[in-house]
Amino acid sequence: MKNNTVCEKTIKDAIVSYMNPYHVKYIKEYPYNSIYKLFQSLDSLEEEKLYEIMGIAGSFYIKGINKTLFNDKDKLFTQVKSKCIEIAKTTSELVAINAFVSVVANGLLCVGNPLNVNEKIIENKNMLENMKYNEKEIIGKVKQTNGNKTISDDNIKHVYNMFQESIDKMKINQEKNLDLYNYFCNNVIKDLLNENYLQTKKELQDD
To answer: What pLDDT, on the 0 to 100 scale, is given for residue 7?
Structure first.
């Protein structure tokens, strides 16, 4: 039991070590923000990064989301915005914005944290090595299910290459997601921390 506790603590500490300072500050301060400020900050982001962030949020907010909607960037953005507004109306802006920030920041931190990805890479590397070691046995079983059709060396090599490419992409995607996480924190969360909620409301009323 003690070893499990130590292991869990080590993993937690490793994840925390990758947390952006603005994310940590946001969790500690739990600021009251306006939906207006959230959307204003999102609108100021680089277009490609904005829609990657909306894709993360959309996966959580939109039931039955599919590839077609992911590819329709404007529709995706509109539906995520509408869902945020709906949550704000039924609960509060505080709840709606905190939910959005949590979904995006925690989601990106999870897939961008090297600790999580490295474990999956090791698992997949072990699987690949196991496949190569047991190649004859595996090929025999595949041939039995395919009418003893011959499997060429090129086909075997192709399978191994595809497996290796997927492993390589895991690391690339991890680094990309970690960069996007920090981009979101350094822009959106920073803007939210700097907002004076009462001043924003006053300015909107004056307009």
So the answer is: 45
Residue carrying structure tokens 């191994």 = 160
Q: Is the dihedral of CA 41, 42, 47, 50 positive or negative?
A: positive
Q: Determine the Cα–Cα distance for residues 128 and 125; give it in Å rounded to an integer.
A: 5
Q: What is the mean pLDDT, run by run of 10 residues, along the chain of 207 residues?
A: 46 74 95 95 95 90 73 85 94 95 94 79 77 69 61 70 79 92 98 94 84
The pLDDT, as a whole number, for residue 109 is: 93
Q: Count the helix, strand and coil residues of the chain and give each as a percent rounded to the nearest 5.
A: 85, 0, 15
- If 0-12 CB within 10 Å is exposed, 13-18 middle and 19+ buried, where does residue 196 land? middle
What is the model's pLDDT at position 149?
Answer: 63
Using left for φ > 0, alpha for ψ between -120 and 50, and beta otherwise, residue 64 falls in left
Sign of CA dihedral 124, 126, 131, 132: positive
191: which 2 tokens?
């803007």
Residue 19 per-residue DSSP state: S
Q: What is the DSSP code string of 27-79?
A: HHH-----HHHHHHHHHTS-HHHHHHHHHHHHHHHSTT--HHHHH-HHHHHHH
Which pLDDT score, from 0 to 100, does residue 142 have? 62
- Is 130 within 8 Å of 206 (Cβ atoms)? no
